[in-house]
Amino acid sequence: MRKFLGLLVISTFLVLAACGGSGDASGNKERETVTIGYFPNLNHAPAMVAKQKEMYQDHLGENVTVEYQTFPDGSTFMKALAAGEIQGGLVGPGPAINSFISGVDVQIIGASSTGGTVIVSRDGSGIKSWEDVEGKTFISPRVGCTHDVQFETYMKEKGITSERIGGSMKHVTGEPARYQSLFEKGDVDVATAPEPWASVMEAKVDANVVIPTSDVSFGETLPAAVMVTSDVMIENNSEQVQKLVDAHKKAVQYINDNPNEAIDITIEGIADITDQQLKKSVMENAWERTNFTYEVDADVIQEFGNSSHDLQFLKEKPDFEGFVNKSFIQ
Fold it and tell me: What is a single molecular function from GO for this protein (predicted)?
């Protein structure tokens, strides 16, 4: 089925290319547009740095117009990728896995960061450790998203599960940028928070760290965000994909070489999207919990997928053959 869908999309792409042509009557090459997607989270900082420093534009060249689109969650990102609205970008491994298994033509071509997932509780909830979470309400960006799987894997190993699979924890979803207001209203007790939102809530609403990044399942090994593109892009525009990856690698290196300036760029990038101006001290705290790298470990992706199956987010144990493509980051 995946192969059939891939061929159908590729055939459509080729037909459209033939109808549209690659230049005008005088032979001048038309400008292409490449749209890159990402989220307003710290683990997507490489996209914000590459945007601000025009790294994608520099690598793709003057005949390409680079545009950007931001998303509140991985599901909407993956729908945009499948529809050809974006050509690639950064997304959590959870949504990428779910889409791959569902037949969407997507490949992981690199990582963005590891770490950065923190489980925090609302001040006044009485929750100080994982033992206190039973029967409480927790929030994640989406059901079965990366942060949800990390949290539920950890809790299941402790003998506590969500109502979805017969347990006691209640589960709601929402954008991480809204977690603070939900804590203030008392609507949720626990948040699976990607940075910098965990640090924001620690600073502004006295949220308690229940499970730190170092302890949550896959916390320091799983890519918090991965760089993905479609099979169509790889098969028809492999040189362009390589340029995207090269720009991404340059952004990651810049972050590691210039953390202070990278923090400023990320604060500005998040403010542009969420209208929230984060304090530098908050971002510095979040930065300590995050490791920026473009290297991706296929074995960890498989372990994470197996855990998603164990939690019944996936009906079958996943087969990730052809999913992780490391040829562009070598």
Answer: ATPase-coupled transmembrane transporter activity
